[in-house]
Design brief:
Layout: H1 27-41, H2 45-58, H3 63-75, H4 79-92, H5 97-109, H6 113-126, H7 133-149, H8 153-166, H9 171-183, H10 187-199, H11 206-212, H12 220-223, H13 255-258, E1 265-270, E2 276-277, E3 284-291, E4 296-305, E5 310-317, E6 320-321, E7 323-328, E8 334-341, E9 344-345, E10 347-352, E11 358-365, E12 368-373, E13 388-397, E14 400-409, E15 412-413, E16 415-421, E17 424-432, E18 435-443, E19 446-449, H14 463-469, H15 476-481
Antiparallel strand pairs: 1-2, 1-3, 3-4, 4-5, 5-6, 5-7, 7-8, 8-9, 8-10, 10-11, 11-12, 13-14, 14-15, 14-16, 16-17, 17-18, 18-19
Helix pairs in contact: 1-2, 2-3, 3-4, 4-5, 5-6, 6-7, 7-8, 7-9, 8-9, 9-10
């Protein structure tokens, strides 16, 4: 049965306010900060603290002084004061990865892993080329371990892959990665990690490799020594391969392997409305890894037109689109280059015409966006001046069009704005001088009035992403075809 396509827009529970960094620092304040810093180099933290206090009293917006005072307070065992100063520094200087690292480390010392992770992850993302590689290794390892121990194996792998880059000769990270891939039923990646750990001298024996992979004979030369039963299996693998520590699993005994999905790479077919169907009825198909645990895709995926041309590429972590997402026309030219952070649109999105030229760009920051029409033949080009009406075709499925329309006056939203699906308004809102006045969202139970604007950057999310997430089957035949999917959306 055809499912009506409706979209749910998520809102942040709190507003994120980013204050611009202070452009001018009083010379007197800067001098006190410098003198305080030099006193810290001599371990004269009490004297340094006096100067930092005076400097902040003179100029409360001098963001960098809070970071120095936080370091000073840490050395004076005033951890709570240090936390407060680091937080103020981040509020004034949102991209300061060093302060986020320091705060994460404080919370880690307090055994508060959740708060530690909340600072480590953005520090990793915001670190520039001059940031300490040792600190990045430390934070990525921590994040990987946290997610692995909390059974979020897709997320753990993201950080372990980075650790591999920093320490490619470290057998331990390959064992951690192997554990995650095993829990995600990715035997190919599990074996690749296990073999690399074996080559690097990790506690992996030939019995384990022969049980699940291709054995170890072809790896002995790289490892540099012959492996025997005397090599005890790493304890992280004990819950996965417990019996191989004690005895050889005979070649004919594959009882345990019958319940193990030896190939997690799957192919799922979709019709023109991105509903799951049998191959004969497909307009698209997806090749990806499937996580039985989460009953969803995990890791990198590629979508194809039914004729074999690439339609889109992306990555899914924790059921959310993450990182770069690219869509292509059937002729191979780019259609969309986008970026997601935890399922939310982010950074610059570029929309192309089928000849490969750029049509328009959308700059996205949090849920705010700015449209820049680059194609002078685009009928919406006039809005670049800050005043004018526009109507953008976001996507088209068969005969269904997804259109976003509105009007600007002096760079502010004005009049009627709407997101239209198949000729019907899914979101309708009114503005006056940039201020939201009224609006509603269409749902399966009718129109629901909204108190705040629902027209955010999520408007630009390709509709197939939302549709695929619902795991909608076109009929019972299609549902029965995919026995590995727990049935939803039928």
């Amino acid at each position: 049965m055809f499912k009506q396509i409706l979209f749910v827009f998520l809102f942040l529970s709190t507003l994120l306010h980013v204050q611009a960094q202070k452009k001018y620092i009083n010379r007197k304040v800067a001098q006190k900060n410098y003198e305080g810093y030099m006193l810290m180099q001599e371990n004269k933290f009490d004297s340094a603290l006096i100067l930092f206090d005076e400097a902040i009293t003179d100029d409360p917006d001098a963001f960098f002084i809070y970071q120095n005072r936080a370091i000073c307070k840490l050395n004076l065992q005033d951890t709570s004061g240090a936390i407060s100063d680091y937080q103020t520094n981040i509020k004034l200087e949102p991209d300061n990865a060093e302060s986020k690292y320091a705060l994460g480390n404080i919370y880690k010392t307090r055994l508060d892993s959740v708060n530690a992770l909340n600072y480590f992850v953005p520090a990793i993302e915001q670190a520039d080329v001059e940031f300490s590689q040792k600190k990045l290794l430390y934070m990525n390892n921590f994040a990987g371990h946290y997610f692995r121990l909390n059974h979020d194996f897709d997320s753990a792998l993201v950080f372990y892959e980075r650790v591999k880059i920093y320490t490619p000769q470290n057998a331990s990270v390959y064992i951690n990665s192997a554990v995650c891939n095993f829990r995600l039923d990715s035997l190919q990646n599990f074996c690749s990690d296990l073999e690399q750990a074996f080559i690097l001298g990790g506690s992996v024996n030939c019995i384990a490799l022969k049980t699940y992979c291709k054995g170890c004979n072809h790896l002995i030369a790289e490892r540099g020594k012959t492996d025997t039963l005397s090599t005890a299996l790493d304890t992280r693998l004990a819950g996965i391969i417990p019996d191989t520590i004690y005895y050889h699993l005979s070649a004919g005994d594959n009882t345990r392997l019958r319940s193990f999905d030896t190939s997690r790479k799957i192919k799922i077919y979709f019709n023109e409305l991105w509903q799951i169907c049998i191959p004969e009825k497909a307009s698209f198909y997806r090749e990806a890894f499937w996580s039985k645990l989460s009953n969803y895709f995990g890791g990198d995926f590629t979508d194809y037109y039914s004729s074999g041309e690439i339609y889109a590429t992306g990555r899914i972590e924790k059921k959310l689109i993450q990182g770069d997402y690219k869509v292509y026309y059937k002729n191979g030219n780019p259609k969309l280059k986008a970026h997601f952070i935890n399922g939310n649109p982010a950074k610059k999105w570029t929309f192309f015409l089928d000849d490969g030229s750029i049509d328009y760009e959308v700059d996205i920051e949090f849920e705010e966006f700015k449209i820049n029409i680059l194609n002078k033949d685009n009928p919406n080009f006039a809005i670049n001046s800050g005043t004018g009406e526009f109507s953008l075709l976001i996507d088209k499925w068969d005969n269904i069009e997804f259109i976003f329309s509105g009007e600007y006056v002096d760079n502010a939203r004005e009049g009627q704005w709407a997101f239209i699906q198949n000729g019907e308004k899914v979101i309708s809102e009114k503005y006056k001088k940039g201020k939201f006045k009224s609006g509603y969202v269409t749902t399966t139970i009718g129109n629901i009035n909204s108190e705040n604007s629902c027209i955010t950057a999520s408007i630009f999310t390709p509709p197939q992403i939302t549709q695929v997430a619902g795991l909608y089957f076109v009929n019972a035949q299609a549902a029965n075809y995919y026995s590995f999917i727990r049935k939803f959306g039928l």
